[in-house]
């Protein structure tokens, strides 16, 4: 039986050199197999390199994004679409840098931190990463449970189940679904990627259907996508629109997928290194070009889905059509009377797919973090089991999952600098990246993006502290 990809990602590397020329061609041959053909990059190979960025993109369409996008569209119509465009540009840069670090060094971001930083710094970074991973995984698991609840909860409530009992059942079903996906990964890393890509595709189709139903004003949507605007109708509206915009932008880049993306590229890197080198080509340079395309397509796909959420909410939930909708469950209950039962069901399916896929990705990130920072082996199924326990406790005592989702965004805001700053420091160092170290232009863009994200997170946290 094959190892899970998350376990393979953390396997000890035989080479740490960042330079392509330092990689010696390795021909791995076992009885009954043929020596692999020399590796070369061709256009028809590009499709086989799609996957890592799509797995990372799930974090950008998780249940937390559902909540902020729906509230933003419901309160302010199309006005905040520009926020998603700019946050997507920063996400592309940061995710590519994470993948680049993994491809060039052959190590994950946590492994690089352990290798290049002092032990006290590494332990501090590990603690922050664990807090982020646990908070994320818990929130995504609750989001998946909420998706199951929206789909099957009404029938169970009608048969005498309590809300808490129904949510517990939904949580257990979510756990089973994630375990099944993690088990599929045992067949190979590409199978897991295909399943996650299928979930992303379903979410996209669901929101394509929702947008088709609401018939948006495309000219107005395009204008607000390109031109930054806020609601200036009153001081209160301006303050509220800034708060929502900050929440959308500041919580876009998730720390756990910054760690994870550097690990997701490792299986293909090993395959590239394991075949004879073609003279006159650079294996890492070729892989980086393909991964840039992967990141560009995946992140823009997530951007379109997020934009569709705002467009749907802007038309269906704006003040001219219904009361302002501020949470996911309320959105589900409102969509049925407005657009028909199919719209509500499709919305719940999208939320369920988002919760299950993002929960799976959260578990993988948690394993990469603990194994990379501490250099230990940690079973991924045990990681999943550890996350289930606090989630079940939260549901059993009747806490509101939606409030937990919001709290997780606050925790992630605190943890974000501990992922972004080490990433930029490492990718800017010639000693780490060799000739692949970031150019001056990339360094400036990276630090500006980090400064914007951290500043907006600080504003978000201050507004939350003072109740807006």
Q: What does this entry show, briefly?
A:
Helices cover 73% and strands 0% of the residues. The chain is mostly helical.
Indicate the proportion of strand residues: under 5%
CATH class wording: Mainly Alpha
Number of domain units:
1
The amount of helix comes to over 70%
Textual characterization of the structure:
The chain is an all-alpha fold and 468 residues long. It has one domain (5-9, 44-465): Amino acid/polyamine transporter I (Up-down Bundle). It is built from 20 helices and no strands. It has helices at residues 5-9, 52-57, 63-76, 81-105, 109-116, 119-158, 163-184, 189-214, 218-226, 235-250, 255-264, 266-273, 283-316, 328-339, 341-374, 380-396, 401-415, 417-428, 430-433, 440-465. The longest helix has 40 residues, at 119-158. The chain is globular and about 65 Å long.
Please supply descriptive tags for the structure shown above.
globular; single chain; disordered N terminus; 468 residues; mainly alpha; Amino acid/polyamine transporter I
Which helices and strands, and how do they pair?
Blueprint: H1 5-9, H2 52-57, H3 63-76, H4 81-105, H5 109-116, H6 119-158, H7 163-184, H8 189-214, H9 218-226, H10 235-250, H11 255-264, H12 266-273, H13 283-316, H14 328-339, H15 341-374, H16 380-396, H17 401-415, H18 417-428, H19 430-433, H20 440-465
Helix pairs in contact: 3-10, 3-13, 4-9, 4-10, 4-11, 4-13, 4-18, 5-15, 6-7, 6-15, 6-16, 6-17, 7-15, 7-16, 8-13, 8-15, 10-20, 11-15, 11-18, 14-15, 15-16, 18-20
């Amino acid at each position: 039986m094959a190892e899970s990809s998350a376990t393979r990602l953390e396997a000890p590397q035989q080479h740490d050199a960042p330079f392509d020329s330092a990689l010696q061609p390795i021909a791995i041959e076992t009885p009954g197999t043929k020596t692999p053909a020399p590796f070369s990059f061709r256009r028809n190979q590009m499709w086989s390199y799609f996957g890592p960025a799509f797995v990372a993109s799930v974090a950008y369409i998780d249940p937390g994004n559902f909540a902020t996008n729906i509230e933003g569209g419901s309160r302010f119509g199309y006005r905040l679409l520009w926020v998603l465009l700019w946050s997507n540009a920063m996400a592309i840069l940061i995710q590519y840098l994470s993948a680049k670090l993994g491809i060039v060094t052959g190590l994950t971001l946590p492994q690089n931190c352990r290798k290049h930083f002092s032990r006290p710094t590494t332990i501090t970074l590990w603690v922050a990463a664990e807090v982020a991973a646990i908070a994320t995984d818990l929130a995504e698991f609750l989001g998946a449970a909420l998706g199951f609840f929206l789909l099957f909860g009404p029938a169970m409530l009608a048969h005498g189940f309590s809300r808490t009992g129904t949510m517990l059942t939904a949580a257990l079903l979510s756990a089973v679904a994630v375990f099944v996906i993690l088990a599929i990964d045992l067949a190979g890393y590409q199978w897991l990627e295909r399943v996650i890509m299928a979930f992303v595709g379903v979410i996209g189709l669901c929101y394509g259907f929702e947008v088709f139903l609401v018939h948006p004003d495309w000219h107005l949507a395009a204008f607000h996508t390109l031109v930054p605007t806020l609601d200036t109708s009153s001081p209160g509206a301006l303050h509220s629109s800034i708060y929502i915009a900050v929440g959308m932008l500041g919580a876009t880049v998730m720390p756990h997928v910054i760690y994870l993306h550097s690990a997701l590229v490792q299986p293909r890197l090993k395959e590239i290194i394991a075949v004879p080198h073609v003279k006159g080509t650079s294996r890492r340079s070729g892989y980086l070009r393909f991964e840039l395309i992967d990141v560009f397509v995946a992140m823009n796909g997530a951007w379109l889905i997020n934009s569709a959420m705002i467009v749907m909410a802007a038309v269906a939930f704006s003040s001219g059509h219904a009361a302002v909708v501020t949470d996911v469950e309320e959105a589900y209950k409102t969509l049925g009377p407005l657009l028909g039962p199919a719209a509500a069901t499709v919305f719940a399916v999208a939320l369920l797919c988002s919760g299950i896929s993002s929960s799976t990705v959260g578990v993988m990130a948690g394993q990469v973090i603990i194994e990379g920072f501490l250099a230990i082996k940690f079973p991924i199924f045990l990681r999943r089991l550890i996350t289930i326990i606090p989630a079940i406790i939260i549901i059993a005592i009747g806490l509101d999952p939606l409030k937990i989702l919001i709290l997780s965004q606050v925790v992630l805001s605190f943890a974000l600098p501990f992922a972004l700053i080490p990433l930029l420091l490492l990718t800017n160092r010639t000693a780490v990246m060799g000739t692949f170290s970031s150019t001056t232009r990339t360094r400036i863009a990276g630090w500006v993006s980090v400064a914007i994200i951290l500043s907006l997170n600080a504003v978000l946290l201050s507004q939350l502290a003072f109740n807006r």
